[in-house]
Amino acid sequence: MTAPLVLGDNRVPVYYAGGAGIDAFRGTAGTTGPEDWVGSLTALPAAILPPGHPADTGVSRTERGSLRELVAADPVGWLGERLAGAYGGESGLLVKLLDAGERLPVHCHPSRAFARAHLGSLFGKTEGWIVLAATGDARVWLGLRDRADRADLRRWIADQDTTAMLAAMNELTVRPGQVLYVPAGLPHAIGPGVMITELQEPTSFSVLADHTAFGLDAGAATLGLGWDLALSCFDLDGYAGRLDELLPARRSLPGVPGVHSLFGPAADEYFRAWLVECTGAVTLPEAGFAVVVVTGGEGELRWSGGSMPVARGRTLVVPAAAGPLEFRGEVAAIVCRPPEV
Ligand SMILES: O=P(O)(O)OC[C@H]1O[C@](O)(CO)[C@@H](O)[C@@H]1O
Q: Which residues contact 61 (CB under 8 A, 6 or more apart)?
């Protein structure tokens, strides 16, 4: 397999509302739900899969079949030699289009160290967001403003006092194009009217401080671990004076005009995102597995041995064997790349 594959809508069932923005972005209608998993080798865990959905819900389907099966049949062709050997045939990357129709719960995600110690997983869930669309007053909450102690958090959770949780956090209005980095442990919540491309480690581990309003009990909110252990996932440091760590500045790639790296070096071990802004021709610096979200304009995508037209709303998964990609035309795209290995 050397050609990129075009991906259709891949909504997964989740407990919160939203999704109209994904239809608008893709130019489709009639699908529901706020999350569309793109180029995914990851299935929704059985514990949170509603009845009636296949066990591999979440895994992308392509015109050639399940992406997970395609990659399993040719791991080196899809992932390249190094990545194929790094995580037992997993890409290490999950990309979502996420369109929040209501505020998501205040939650955080386990780190790799916590996931390895307590959840039997190589991966935690560090994530990063690139805002695709935002209503006028759209906002997110990211990290605590000032340091809190565990007793504060325990009390807010026991009382399900979301007002106090949100008041203690950094509330940020967002605009399209903005990039936010959400390391494991950081308490966060996405507000209604925010649509993002999200890059993350390929798990669904969340600890939900704010859960009863979403119909979830303490067992579901703590990954079955109970609050004593689950509380230790939260980063309770204050971020008011260090928000720049969460709002990375784009970096130009030396010698590659038209491409910027969107997340800081701290993210490289989890995922990388290149913003391509092509007005003519842009060639990416290296070949490798990629998930491409075309965010603006139209043009052509070329690879070794072929080409296809691309336009805003198109999503693709690219095998390493496609070689370095080249964009032509007036087109913008986010090229999502797995962790550096
Ligand atoms: O379903 P969960 O794990 O509660 O989280 C809801 C969503 O919030 C995010 O962590 C974004 O904050 C998404 O990755 C996730 O799908």
A: 8, 10, 67
Q: Is the CB of 211 under 6 A from ligand 1?
A: no
CATH number of 8-245: 2.60.120.10
CA distances from 94 to 229, 306, 339 (A): 26, 26, 11
CB of 42 closer than 6 A to ligand 1? Answer: no
Instruction: Name the pTM for this structure.
Output: 0.97
Ligand 1 nearest atom to the CA of residue 200, by list position:
14
* Angle subtended at Cα 82 by Cα 80 and Cα 87, rounded to the nearest 5 degrees: 100
Domain 251-337, CATH class in plain words = mainly beta
Per-residue pLDDT tens listing for the chain (341 residues): 689 999 999 999 999 999 999 999 999 988 889 999 999 999 999 988 999 999 999 999 999 999 999 999 999 999 999 999 999 999 999 999 999 999 999 999 999 999 999 999 999 999 999 999 999 999 999 999 999 999 999 999 999 999 999 999 999 999 999 999 999 999 999 999 999 999 999 999 999 999 999 999 999 999 999 999 999 999 999 999 999 999 999 999 989 999 999 999 999 999 999 999 999 999 999 999 999 999 999 999 999 989 999 999 999 999 999 999 999 999 999 999 999 99
What residues does CATH 2.60.120.10 cover in the chain?
Answer: 8-245, 251-337
279 CA distance to ligand 1 middle (Å): 35
Q: What is the DSSP letter of 299?
A: E
Closest atom of ligand 1 to CA, residue 96: 14
Question: Which residue's CA is minimally distant from atom 3 of ligand 1?
Answer: 206
The Cα 134–Cα 169 span in angstroms is 20
Q: Quick one: which atom of ligand 1 is closest to the CA of 190?
A: 12
